[in-house]
Write a structure and sequence with these properties.
4-stranded antiparallel beta sheet, rod-shaped, single chain, 14 helices, alpha+beta
Length: 493
């Protein structure tokens, strides 16, 4: 006797067939009723294209740091906020007549569940390197309402995209404009400080150090020359004074008298004669005697004039005056050169510290100048990027297909609901039959009797219920099931 009794299960299925049919009918009817009771739901969809920049990036680059796809994602999160969805529902009268009973949070949650954004891949990366399309959809019970809401969403997306791109480009432009002005102000102030420092230390700047050292060397040499000249002049003065004291050759510096002229002629003649004659020559002796006599006469005349106070300056006086005047000039020039050398020494000593300070100022100016040049270049790029965004020449969003009112409802799928009701009825009916069989503990097969007695019976006789007086049918069934024998009435028969 096998465990699998097909005829037995088929008999059970046929016995429970009315229940199965009833349950399947009920569930199928319920599914059909639900399919026709549910209100139609319409879904409108618009397509938005993410366009690539119209100007090549190699020629002019936009200053917006994010791609159009990333901008769409940012705008998407801004649109599905509670305030935005509540404002959208209020503009399009989505909950007209029922809005007073709903809170703003409930309206936003319901709108959020009905709005959907879907990206359509067109063999392009999501970073905006190629063409990308987004579907914006909304579900509503009214087809016209669904189309209006989607078009309103599309208008908001495009408006936010334009404001986002132009706003970022304008912020970039404003930032670099302010940065350029700030760096320009700092550069002007630093250049003023450098000019002020150079003016205050114009004699001790490093760029004139070589000139001042050369000037110091030349002044020192000039001082040495003056000292040598001074020594020579003083020696000459002493020699002149000594010579005139010894020779007594004093001549007036005024007009030459005949005696003086004669004396000069005789001295010249003596000099000429000495080249020819000797000292002992009579001519030389006579000429010397005449010169001496004439000199004595001139000296006597000079002495008489000196006693009367009418003598004029002599040649010695003029020469000594010239020498003294030159000595005074040399003394003044030496003092001036000494002061100049002292000033040069001070400026040369102060040059290293001034050079350090000036190098620091120049280094700061060079750094700020480099920043200013960079900011100016960035400002030019920002200006170009702003013009690109204002003229919509960069990556942008555009409507490929606006939303139109759908002609057929998106849901419910009535056939699917009816089919689901039928499938649920079949499952429920078989589940109900299985539950009844699990709860029924009646012995109906020899295998069940053998399992109960834990032994193999010799034979089993089927129970055939009959109506007999004095016998309780339930009792007969119970006894027959327990013993596996036919009732008394059967045995008697």
């Amino acid at each position: 006797m096998g465990d699998l009794d097909i005829r037995f299960y088929l008999s059970l299925l046929l016995r429970r067939l009315p229940w199965i049919v009833a349950i399947i009918f009920v569930f199928t009817a319920g599914g059909i009723a639900v399919a026709f009771i549910l209100p139609p739901l319409y879904r409108a969809t618009a397509k938005i294209l993410v366009e690539a920049p119209q100007i090549p990036a190699e020629m002019a680059r936009s200053t917006v740091p994010i791609s159009a796809v990333q901008q769409f994602e940012i705008i998407e999160h801004e649109i599905v906020t509670t305030d935005s969805l509540a404002a959208l529902a209020d503009r399009q009268h989505v909950y007209e007549g029922a809005g007073d009973n709903l809170s703003v949070a409930d309206i936003a949650d319901d709108m959020r569940s009905r709005v959907s954004f879907e990206q359509v891949e067109l063999n392009s990366p999501r970073d905006g390197g190629g063409a990308t399309i987004f579907n914006v959809s909304f579900e509503a019970r009214n087809a016209e309402l669904a189309a209006r809401v989607v078009n309103d969403l599309v208008d908001s997306i495009l408006s936010k995209n334009i404001s986002l791109r132009t706003g970022k480009a304008g912020d970039t432009m404003q930032f670099f404009d302010q940065e350029t002005k700030r760096l320009g102000t700092e550069l002007t102030a630093l250049e003023a400080d450098i000019l002020k420092f150079k003016t205050a230390n114009k004699e001790a700047l490093p760029d004139s150090l070589d000139f001042r050292r050369a000037q110091q060397s030349s002044q020192q040499e000039r001082l040495s020359q003056l000292e040598r000249e001074e020594a020579a002049l003083r020696s000459r003065r002493s020699n002149l004074v000594e010579m005139f004291k010894n020779t007594g050759n004093i001549v007036t510096a005024g007009p030459v008298s005949p005696e003086q002229q004669m004396l000069q002629d005789m001295n010249r003649a003596l000099a000429d004669q000495l080249t020819v004659f000797q000292e002992t020559s009579p001519n030389i002796v006579m000429l010397r005697a005449r010169i001496e006599t004439l000199r004595k006469g001139l000296n006597a005349s000079h002495a008489a004039a000196s006693s009367t106070g009418k003598a004029g300056p002599t040649e010695l006086d003029f020469q000594l005056s010239d020498i003294d005047e030159r000595l005074r000039f040399i003394t003044q020039e030496k003092a001036s050169i000494t002061r100049t050398l002292q000033d040069l020494a001070k400026t040369i000593a102060a040059t290293p510290s001034n050079e350090t300070i000036l190098n620091s100022l120049e280094r700061n100016r060079a750094n700020i100048q480099a920043q200013y040049n960079n900011a100016t270049a960035m400002l030019a790029q920002a200006s170009t990027g702003e013009q690109i965004e204002l003229r919509s020449k960069g990556g942008r969003l555009s409507v490929v297909e606006p939303a139109v009112a759908p002609e057929k409802p998106y849901s419910p799928n009535r056939r699917r609901i009816a089919g689901a009701g039928l499938a649920a009825g079949i499952g429920a009916s078989f589940g109900f039959v299985l539950l009844l069989e699990l709860l029924n503990k009646t012995i109906r097969r020899p295998s069940e009797l053998a399992a109960l007695l834990n032994t193999e019976p010799l034979a089993t006789i089927a129970y055939i219920p009959i109506h007999t007086q004095g016998w309780n049918e339930a009792e007969q069934r119970s006894r027959g099931n327990l013993t596996g024998a036919a009732p008394v009435s059967q045995r008697a028969a």
